[in-house]
Write a structure and sequence with these properties.
Length: 530
């Protein structure tokens, strides 16, 4: 249970939300919606961290499970995926110690082996008493539901792609015995089957849920009420997302009508004040009372929501590259015993729009990172063509440093004057955040910052890994239009079938086999399954 009263949410010196009050009770499924930068992620972080905000009060009851937008690699260390999921019930560490003890027994002397056997037996009893063997099978079912294959369960989480790590973390959160779930963009990196599984889980979950998602079908199917963040406030709505959209418009029209009536009344009174203030003493007194009335009315004017500012993404038309800007031959990559792919070739012509497709864990992100030069293949080589400038957008924002300001990030990649950099940030609605540390930005704002860094690079080859994650619909549409106008070469990884269909790729590579083909609309089903 969560009880939020009169809370103020700040990011640095900026106040994002004021006087926030709501509750999440058992059985409530609450969707938190609003544009990027409205304060949704910061609010959820404050609620999940367990402390008290500077202003207001948060009451928590029961165990809370929190899925953050990004999973730092440092948190997962060298645990396998299954071990990471099991830590939700404090049995993963026991199983790891059991395995270490078993391995030590193989090389131990007789006396040492007896001691280790006794220790292993004690650990096994503890593991069994905590329901370890049953829980282990249950954890595997959670993993399968979220698209984590059996082969991935033994893989160290630190070697996984961002999408794989996030699915593991979501499985861990859902596997835990919690009374309340706080989920920030839980459908990122999920395929259609995994989304359906998650929606059913949320429908059956008996506790309270507070979630942020730009996946509107999920919001419609899973939630019972909406909290709308924007203009520094949070406004509650009872009902699903479709009801919220209709009711929001009705309330807006109602406010406009009331404000129009108030403005007309103030104008009428002010006209009377101008006519009679300098006339007889009686009329002057009446005019004075009208002035007082006008002041009270102006203080109580109905607020009408401001129109959302439009993001304006534009990729400058680049200098043309050579005819073949990028070629890769016989690429292979493995992490330990986990072979991701072998013998993959990539050849792309200038101006192509290539999409890399495949199921979760097929190596799409790994291939893109190799093409970008971020990772080195175990076999094969990548050849960058004549006059090629590569811009790489990483889905996990590895190049965004939490303690550096927004403007410092822009200066790292461009020698443009500060005034021009501020102007570009303004197009991404980040002008008022230039001195803010990047770690205080929302996921959508970090996405916009990463895209702004690519814009100032004037690259003629763009490698984009899930660029629509965390973007609100308006920002996603702006990105799509920018890419449609861009005349350079694009290599894309995306699970957003609508975005891919509108972009219209020319070619596709299907992982892990690396099969290349011309893209057609029949492939969109595989995009959705990715």
């Amino acid at each position: 249970m969560l009880l939020v009263r009169n809370v103020t949410i700040e990011a640095g010196a900026r106040t994002l939300l004021s006087d926030v009050s709501f509750s999440v009770q058992k059985g409530d499924k609450v969707g938190l919606v609003g544009p990027n930068g409205a304060g949704k992620t910061t609010l959820m972080r404050v609620l999940a961290e367990g402390g008290q905000p500077k202003v207001g009060n948060v009451t928590r009851a029961g165990k809370i499970g929190y899925l953050a937008q990004e999973v730092p690699i440092a948190e997962v260390d060298d645990e396998s995926a299954l071990e990471r999921i099991l830590t939700a019930r404090d049995i993963g560490a026991i199983e790891r110690t059991m395995e270490a003890t078993r391995l030590a027994m193989e090389d131990a002397t007789d006396e040492e082996r007896d001691r280790l056997i006794h220790r292993f037996s004690r650990l096994d009893d503890e593991f069994t008493s905590k329901g370890g063997y049953v829980a282990k099978a249950e954890a595997k079912r959670f993993a399968a539901g979220l698209g984590i294959g059996m082969g991935e369960l033994d893989q160290p989480v630190a070697t996984m792609s961002g999408g794989q790590r996030r699915r593991v973390e979501l499985a861990r959160i859902l596997f835990a015995d919690t009374e309340t779930l706080i989920l920030d963009e839980p459908t990122n990196h999920l395929d259609l089957d995994a989304k359906a599984w998650l929606m059913q889980f949320l429908a059956d979950y008996s506790g309270g849920v507070l979630l942020v998602s730009h996946d509107l079908p999920l919001l419609d199917a899973a939630i019972t009420s909406v909290l709308a963040a924007g203009d520094g406030t949070v406004e509650p709505y009872r009902g699903n997302y479709s009801f919220y959209v209709t009711e929001r418009e009705r309330r807006h029209e109602q406010r406009l009508a009331e404000r129009k009536r108030q403005d007309a009344e103030i104008a009428r009174l002010e006209e009377g004040i101008r006519r009679f203030k300098g006339s007889t003493a009686k009329m002057a007194r009446r005019a004075s009372s009208w002035e007082t009335r006008v002041e009270r009315m102006q203080a109580g004017l109905v607020e009408t929501a401001r129109e959302n500012r439009a993001i304006n993404v534009t990729f400058p038309q680049p200098e043309p590259s050579g005819k073949i800007p990028l070629r890769a031959e016989n690429l292979a990559k493995a992490y330990g015993h986990n072979v991701v792919f072998v013998d993959v070739d990539v050849i792309i012509d200038r101006g192509d729009r290539l999409i890399i497709m495949g199921l979760n864990g097929a190596g799409k992100t790994t291939l893109l990172r190799i093409l970008a030069g971020v990772e080195t293949p175990d076999l094969g080589e990548v050849d960058i063509g004549y006059r090629v400038s590569v811009g790489y957008y990483a889905q996990e924002h590895e190049d965004i440093h939490p303690t550096r300001s927004v403007l410092e990030h822009m200066k790292e990649v461009s020698g443009l004057p500060d005034r021009e950099l501020r102007g570009i940030l303004g197009l991404f609605l980040l002008a008022d955040k230039i001195d803010q540390e990047a770690g205080t930005l929302s996921g959508g704002e970090r996405t916009k910052l990463a895209l702004a860094r690519i814009v100032v690079g004037r690259h003629n080859v763009l490698l984009l890994d899930e660029p629509t994650n965390n973007l609100d619909p308006q920002a996603k549409e702006a990105l799509l239009m920018a890419l449609q106008r861009y005349e350079g070469t694009v290599i894309l990884v995306s699970h957003d079938a609508h975005f891919v269909a509108q972009l219209g790729p020319t070619r596709a590579i299907i992982m892990p086999d690396g099969d290349a083909d011309y893209f057609d609309q029949s492939m969109l089903e595989l995009v959705s399954l990715a």
